[in-house]
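ok so for the tutorial part 2 we go from a plain amino acid sequence to predicted structure tokens. step 1 is just haveing the sequence, like this:
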Amino acid sequence: MKYSILVFFKFKELTKEQEERAKSEWEKMVKEMPPEVKMISVNDHAWGTTYNGFMILEADNFDAYVKFWKWFKDKVRWYVDHTQTVIGLKRE
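step 2 — the prediction. this is what the tokens look like for a chain of 92 residues:
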């Protein structure tokens, strides 16, 4: 059984310098992602919503996702204003 996770995100207003810092930290974080959670895609724009974009993740077990989520939120909290998460079980 795999979990599919759809995470909508909304950025805080950032200065140009903060945007550059966020981009640099994002690239570093992606390289450090735990192997139990796979990032399928990161998508700019979420037309039809108030979000700036969304990402799609997969995890083999829910505990790995919960552990990842705390790690992830601690890294992006300073520039991500709000998230909305939808979790489902992937059909095999």
